Amino acid sequence: MLELTNAEWVALSLSLKVALTGVVVSLPFGFVVAWVLARKSFPGKIILDGLVHLPLVVPPVATGYLLLVLLGVNGPAGAWLNDQFGLRLVFTWQGAAIVAAIMGFPLLVRALRLSIEAIDTSLIQAARTLGASPSRVFVTVILPLVSPGLIAGSLLAFSRALGEFGATIAFVGNIPGETQTLPLALYSALQSPGGEEMGYRLVALSIVLAVVTLAASELLGRAVRRRLTGDAL
Amino acid sequence: MSSVLSISVQKQEGTFTLDAEFEASAGVTGIIGPSGAGKSMLLSTIAGLANPDNGSIRLDRHALFDTAQNINLSPEHRELGMVFQNARLFPHMTVKSNLTFSRRQSRAALSTVEEIVDLLDIGSLLSRRPHHLSGGEKQRVAIGRALLSSPAALLMDEPLASLDLARRREIMPFLERLRHRFDLPILYVSHNLDETLRLADSVIVMDQGDILARGGVEQTLSRIDVQSLVLGGATTNDHPEPVTIVAATIGKRSDDGLFSIETPWGTLTAPNITGRYGDQVRLRIRARDLVLSTTEPTGLSIRNVIAGEVGIMTEAGSAQVDVLVRPSHDSNAQPVWARITKRAATELDLQPGHPIWALLKAVVLTSDIELEALR
Fold first, then answer.
1. For chain B, which terminal residue's Cβ has fewer other Cβ atoms within 10 angstroms, N or C?
2. Shortest Cα distance from B109 to chain A (angstroms)?
């Protein structure tokens, strides 16, 4: 029972790779968008806010289909990516990572935004009067202070990516070893006759993964908060 | 060689207009005024945290800001240290990391970490985080952090305002020490007369964005209009009691426990003075603590007599009058305010120009004159 089959390993490692890549890709964009939403006011801010939240409310299959249209080999963005970088997203794990990035984006931005709003800007001013350039302020003051939101948001987005199904199957299909993540493998197992046992094992694996992620989030969050406030929790 | 800050700034914010022009060289320039006078905004513009609409800010001949030349250095390039009302320590760093945060290398180091730690007595705090410090400790660390950025001038924005009286007393000696140790222009913003009296070498009084008065501490802060602005409403019936502020030197202590105090009016005596021989102090003398006499007093127990003539008289409500006594021995010596009843003024037939003797009980000097050691 504890021994994972080869197929299960493949699905698990692919899931982790796709989710991790998705989070890493979305982090810089997420930070910029969260910063803009938290600190700037401009006309159309509410539209940006709405756009960011779209993946949360639109049916995932619809999102996946939209991506297929846009990023498909014949789609406007997909053709350009293919011509310029030889990057093909449809039916590849990179495509699955893009899906993961997009679906986790609203969760990442929400957590980061709260954290950025909570930064005391007077600390930034103090750092500037001490001779720190904006980039040094970012690394030494802003990043450490938003780290609780960074960790919470990243792990939320990571969890969301691990569970992603609809948009992934619509955009990159269900190819074992390439795009068949855990939920897709579970789906395939349940579709095939006699696949129940593997289904149970994949369900159990998914639950373990979710619990580990949640626990990591909680522990990391505590450690960071303790560092920031010095409070023993 | 210490720097000179030359400031000329105008800034409009809503209906409020800041318009200030002054120079500050080494020593403490106290900037005093009621809240909302624009003191903090002035400091923000100097530090580069807010932009004036017009004007120039110079450190010696080096422009930090100049609308005519289109110069506006960002705060990190201005080489000015700033201490804020709240310490603004970085919560994720230890005291040590806060102190050594600045990497400014454009100027020769003003001091060393060891010296600053010693001067501010924060050696036992170095490995702690700001959350575990008291308000006074935080502010000392913040002052050390600003000094360790080797600034060419230090801007202090009400550094004691968020602290209670006990903590202010705790920090004051450190401020006095750093003022004597470092040959820097220090702009010290406060709305507190005591702090300014104790620290400032010269003073700028601000009201509604403008400079109302400036100059020597004693002369400027003895002005009635300045006092009603700074102390405004602190006393009863809307006629703030004038306070005379005078520079003095603590002299010898006699065998019977009396100190002699050298003032521009001559030698006064007082028991139980806190301070040591030779200390420069500023006396605050409340107008009600003086007694006036139209004849030279004899056979009285009072030791402290100032001979002079009556200067201006201003009514303080329906029953009292404030009389300015000008010392006769030296026309440049500082005058002293006395508050007496109108009836007494009438009975004594006080008129400007008449000779007068102002009497001050030695005992009053202990209880009602605040002596604040400057060194």
1. N
2. 13
